[in-house]
Predict the 3D structure of the following.
Amino acid sequence: MTETTADACAGTLDLTRSEQWVLHHAMLRELEAAADDGETEPWWAIAVLEQVESQGTLSLTCFEAWRVKRSLRTYADDAPARDVDAAEDVAGRLSAAYESPPLAAP
């Protein structure tokens, strides 16, 4: 089981069924892209999938929220019309709920 590391800006978002489905699909695309490129599966995408599948809510670190937001915005660019609003809504809620992207360590 994948574990996430808590940080100062972690919070929880409740998701509708539609938002859960869109988030699940976007995370599967991240995993498939990594597999296609011969890269290691992104741990953050696995952690998000596990949360959505078991809880229907998200409790993310700043880094995870930043990655998920980027993934959802990319997904919304070429998603089926029925998914665009849900992807943009979750990405917007992540922007409002979490701080800006984490800084790289010096």
